[in-house]
Structure formats: C-alpha cells, structure tokens
Specification:
Glutaredoxin, alpha/beta, 5-stranded mixed sheet, 7 strands
Length: about 160
Amino acid sequence: MEIYEFSVKDINQQEISFKKYENRVLLIVNVASRCGYTPQYEGLQKLHETYYDKGLSILGFPCNQFLGQEPGSEEEIKSFCSLTYNVTFELFSKIDVNGEHTHPLYVFLKQNAKGLLGSEAIKWNFTKFLVNKQGEVVKRYAPATKPEEIESDIKELL
C-alpha cells in the first residue's frame, strides 16, 4: 500500500484523495486546540506560508485521544485555528491515531516510521510525519519537536 491510495475527510466533510498530494512533500500532524503544544500551530502556519508554493503541504488531523484536548466540533476547531493562529493549511475531520479505530492513514504512517524504541503508538498531540515527493514516510518527529526544527529536513526534500 502507498500513501496515495488513502482518502480522508477534510474538516468540511469533503472526501479528499491523497492522489491530490502526488509530487508534494507532506508534513502530517495530529493536532489539538487545548494542548501545551498548541502554539506549534504558529510554526506550522509559517512553514505553510514559506514552502507551500515550493511543494509542501501541511495536513492537520485533529485528535481527541490525549486527555480530551480536542473536544470541539469540526466547526469549533476550524474557528479556533483560524481566529487564534490564522491557519490556512489543510485541516481534516477528527480521527483516532491509536487503538481499535485508528484511521488507516495512521496505521500506515506508524508502520513506516516507528517512534522511540520501535514503538508504533502515537504518544501525544503534535507528533509529526514527514513524507517525501515519492510518498515515502521518511521521518517521525516527537511532539516537542518544534516545526522550525524540521525546516532543514523539509528544504532537503523540496
């Protein structure tokens, strides 16, 4: 299976095929509005503004699996991101990244870029996956890794 075979619902409930992202570098992040790492939205937006036209797509997937830090509806999430951080990168419907109902995209990401000590589980909000233009998952970053710390890796792939 490759990443371009997946489809997901965006935050407006529209089905989006990953074929849309062929030949683009992807930074896929599970996000939350009430997390200590929530200010990373600012850094993600800056990366989006700097590199979107050069071939980067940032994809934010709200997830409420970590201490209920994303309790809102899609409308509330969209509003929060827009009003608080001026987010213009793509946001998707809330998903599970761990457990029985893990979204197939996240099963794929976790199998292709394991975490600390070979673990597949997502430990917290703002875990990031970097995907190259060929659709290969090349790196996984811990939640504490700030978006600006990933910039050099992104530039290498663009």
